[in-house]
Amino acid sequence: MGHTFYVTTPIYYVNDVPHIGHAYSTVVADVLARFHRQNGDTVFFLTGTDEHGQKVAKAAKAKQLEPQAHVDQMVVPYKDLWHRYAISNDHFIRTTEASHQAVVQKIFKRLLDQGDIYKGLYEGWYCVHEETFWPESQLKDKKCPDCGREVDWVKEESYYFKTSKYKKRLLEHIHSNPEFIRPKVRENEVVSLLKDDLQDVAVSRMTLNWGIPIPFDPDHVVYVWFDALINYLSGVGYLQDEKKFLRFWPPVHIIGKDILKFHAIIWPSMLMALDVELPKTIVATGFWTLGKEKISKSRGKVVDPHELADDLGVDAVRYFLMREVPLGQDGEFTYEALVRRTNHDLANDFGNLIHRTLPMINRFLDGRIPAAPAKPNLTKELAAKATGAISEYKESMANLDTKSALENIWTMLAAANKFVDQSEPWNLKKEDREEELKEVLWGLAEVIRIAALLTAPFMPTTSELIFEQLGLDTKPADQPFKDFLKWGKLTEQPEIKLSAPLFPRVD
Ligand code: MSP
Q: Which among 16, 17, 20, 24 is the best mutation to test ligand 1's pocket, defined by most ligand atoms within 8 Å of the CB?
């Protein structure tokens, strides 16, 4: 049996429609999911929506809707956007589903029975926007230290989860598993939070009814974060389809750095209490900013992923998001940078290679890609470049360095563009050097096939179109890396298909 790979995105609050920041986390997870499938792994890719809590209830109220009616409406734009962005999730979980709610209730009861949850009194502050409890000492100028908004005073009976009990074990786990929290700066952040005075966390609310009820104590609902984190278990069969759960667990979580504390402290503590193996890796991505401020609807800073797709095409946007900044760092979103990447990297570097090579095959070789050369001569250096790029790409992807992986591909494309100029196929044609001409054009087509395979996780739709243009009757997804990500696998093809530019230039 091959490997399995379980990857998740944060589940998004349905207080508002998705913006480019949400699309980003989802695209990152999709790229990893597609890469692993291409690598022959059996993948389970989970995304979904976080539908309970005060923030969502407030949004419903503002629209004068019942919360359930509101979330039923608001889940649609998320599903639509993922469809448009070619997101290949295997399942979409909503926290209002009965099956998820049942799992949360069972977990709550079990932790209570075993003494990891106990009843107490919460007296302190609460930020609705961040759905976070804050002790007075952590406020900044009396405001939420994370988002700077006003906080509410809360005094209510509350269940607590014993995070403090797991602190030592968690620190040990972090120290002995350098893959656990990525990038390293985030690991350091978590370690210093843990070394501070770590308090138990409140896991129920009384002054709110839009949440999962606690059956044996009807005045309380489950705190939205306790509910939401459990989606990673309930979404993969935990307590429902044990076989599936055991097959895929543990996950790789893609999250934003804003929700690190929940994922790297509270969540692992919950899992330890449940005797469930901890996540393989928690990848904390950075923020997209506008004018150096985090893109966020409530700050009036948004970039609409649909508009971007209208203007540039989905794959160009996916490419930009993955190429512009290394995973984990912040990036300033500018239209100029997006247009520059589209014109320079996609239209010039990649597009030109395709749109120079294929018409030559069409004119000089009757539209047929010739067989691989029996005794390679002119393409030897190109083959070495491609082989080097492939191995660097694999290494980059293994390190979750998706930006470098793209750069590795572009190094190969640059070499191929140079090769066109140096080998001058038009002169080979003029001088009737048939075998050399065939070798050169075959070699260029082979680079294009390999580039399409390597970019397939990033630009799935375009890479399929490239395969079509090469006249291949398979899709990139049907060429697993193990067998096809090698120089020389391109066989004779009877008929290439020219078409409009794959990457139109934009102004
Ligand atoms: N519902 C919680 C997550 C629960 S996971 C068990 C939540 N939802 S959210 O909709 O507010 O944000 C989810 C994620 O969206 C962030 O963690 C982050 O990954 C992504 N982003 C939101 N704004 C972003 C940017 N401006 N830039 C990059 N990513 C951002 O938190």
A: 24
> CATH no. for residue 379?
1.10.730.10
**CA distances (Å), 28 to each of 134, 171, 466, in order?**
31, 27, 22
Considering only CA atoms, which residue is closest to atom 18 of ligand 1?
A: 256
Between the CA of 305 and the centroid of ligand 1 the distance, in Å, is 15
Q: Which residue blocks in 276-379 are alpha helix, DSSP H?
A: 305-312, 314-324, 335-341, 352-364
Specify the ligand 1 atom closest to the Cα of 228. Answer: 6
Kindly report, residue by residue over 477-496, the tens digit of the pLDDT.
999 999 999 999 999 999 99
Which residue range is the domain that position 431 belongs to? 335-484
500 domain-assigned = no
Which atom number of ligand 1 is nearest to the Cα of residue 294?
26
- Please tell me if the CB atom of residue 341 comes closer than 6 angstroms to any atom of ligand 1: no
Strands 331-332 and 288-290: parallel
pTM beyond 0.90: yes
Q: What share of the chain is helix, strand, coil (3-state, %, to 5)?
A: 50, 15, 35
Tokens of 227: 């509910």
Question: Of 188, 167, 179, 279, which Cα lies nearest the Cα of 229?
Answer: 279
Q: Is the CB of 48 under 6 A from ligand 1?
A: no
Partners of 213 in beta bridges: 221
| Separation of CA 132 and ligand 1 centre (Å) | 14
Asked whether residue 442 is assigned to any structural domain, the reply reads yes
**Residue located nearest, by CA, to atom 17 of ligand 1:** 256
Query: Which ranges of the chain have pLDDT less than 50?
Result: none
| In a domain? residue 455 | yes
